[in-house]
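G., before I forget:
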Amino acid sequence: MGLSADTNNEKVWIDLERCTGCCNCQLICSLTYSKAFNPSKARISISQTPGEAISFKEDCTECNLCVKYCVYGTLKLKEEVN
Amino acid sequence: MEYYGYAGRVLYVDLSSGKVNVEPLDMDMAKEFLGGFGVNNRLAYDNIEPGEDTLSPKNPVILGAGPLVGTMAPGAVRIMGATKFPLTGAVAWGAGSMSFGTQLKWAGYDHVVITGRAESPVYISILDDQVEICDARHLWGKTIHESADELWKHHEKSGIIGIGQGGENMVKYALTLVDRMATLGRGGFGAVMGSKNLKSIVVRGTRGIRIADRKRFMKIVDDMYQRCKRYPLHQAIVDYGIMSNWNNYVKQLFYYKNYSEIYPADKATERYGPHLYEKIQKRAVACPSCFIADKEIIKLTEGEYEGLVQYTSSFVNIAMIGTRFEINDYTQAAKLIHLLDEYGICMMTFCGLADFLISLYEQGIIDQEDTGGWELKRDFNTILTMIQKVNKREGFGGVIADGWIETIEKIGKGCGEDAPIIKGQDIVWEPRITGLGTNDFEQVVCPRGPQAGSGGSPTYIPNMPPEQFHRHLDRMGVFPDAKERILSGPFGVDIGRLTRYSEDWASVFNSLGICNRHVNNRFYHVDIISELYSSATGIEISSKEMMDNADRVWNMLRILNAREGFSRKDDIFPEIWFKPMKDAEGNVLKIMDYYHQKVLTRDDLKMVLDHYYDERGWDKETGNPSRQKLNELGLSFVAEDFATAGLL
């Protein structure tokens, strides 16, 4: 499948094959921006079945904390891949 | 009142009246019993009537997600169930993972108590404050997978606990699956739900969980992430799940022929070893917040069942059923596990019973007169047929569906002597293979009977050098004086005394809601856990207080079962452990101490039991908490109840 990207976050490559559905990207995002662990408020969305889809919402600030907490290598900074 | 870590509410659903009620979480109770498993036990004390039938509408289904569930504490996803279990008659717990617990917390609930019986099949839908009892007649008769897929069409991104036909038909070892993947409730939790006409519980939450001190909390989480990233086995575990530990499992868990022989390791590896991962398609799956995924979705790419998709905690299950029944084709073994999961039938109890009955048949102790004209063979077709007959309670399958005690009684012929059971539930851990560690001994004293969880003690690893115990015991919060008693005990390590702390350590995980699988447990220390709890909830707690609470939690479990009539008389070593087992080379294995220094006698084992009760502070005669112990734990109300009931 390879790497994909989302126009709402130009800095991140997404490797869907590696997504395990751990939600840690959503958890850190929601804690940072809504002050509670609450994936429904996260600015990144993941599919119920891991690896089907990942997308960034329009209000994503590209802070990329989600990349920092992705231990499975699903989210990668483009500058580091390149 | 502001809640941190805790959601702060308990949901009560009465399926008979259709009444739904929400009450605030009693924070005094939460402080004493932590949450999850612990508060479930306390709720069970108030909501389970001693002596009530397990399939009665009065037997409640209690669910609980601890204060760390829904946060980023790694692996904090546990959804804990409590009820009186049909297979054993014991009040016990079931532990599940995946997304149900987190969604429940995000919806604003720590616990759910479900009572009564619906007139026709229903499911409970929870979406934040909106709680509905919904018609499930269209789902009744469907497999767990089919009904989950149907429910997700209308309840997107929800966590689901569901039963299959096994639960509907009240097979006494029917369990539930969470998100059609993770098991919850070996011993009949699914049958209790079935008796209530409750097909599923569906929950989605958008309220979230707040943290008292986010900076302090995330500092600990960050440290754990750094350790996780440095862990050299991380990628191997993500790639192979718990199959990465294949070389140990193949020696410890592949017993067969009714626990009399060990399946040859080389044959097992050839037929079911990790090399099969090159043939099947696999995706690693993590529960929410897990940083070391070890579940998997696998897809068969060959054979009669090509295309079969299995959501599983591990390929090890497929290897276990395949070797036990001498099925050489791994795709057939995968089909059997898939069916058991679809029907919601516990694979461990089913396999134990099937192996037991086939062994009796092979030995000529039972014949077709006992089985209703059915020839029992150790092969794929027999097991496939048996699963289907048990699921539908058809013919002899209806006998087997009632579990160990009833099957043995109905067959008669004294066939129960070699039954590999404790308290009516099948053995998981075999001390004749590994030596007597806490995993093995816990099966004897646990009110629930044998369980697959390990408690997280060092004896999970066979032959761990004594010098490595110190650090591990510190991690588990073992008090210094107890550490000395444990390490100066008989046969190198005092398993009876250590078992108390293994139970308490597991109680911490299950009460706070952290996954206790060893790949996750290894990242935790009691000081880390206490700091996570304090920063998440705003309730400051020391490591010592944490372990004191865990002691209270485990005592409450024992109390619940003392009320049901359980006592030391039920903590019995099964006779089969005193019989020889053979390994593949023909060597005879006997029950020995953890370091394999000595064959254990019945007197040795009585001493292990005595030391266990002593370390717990329990009455050695009854095996139950004494008045003094109850008062020390702040449970004087139990002491009064027990005195009234003649239990003290």
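Residues 47 and 53 of chain A are 5 Å apart (CA to CA). Strands of chain A lie at 4-6, 9-14, 44-46, 54-56, 75-77.

More on Monday.
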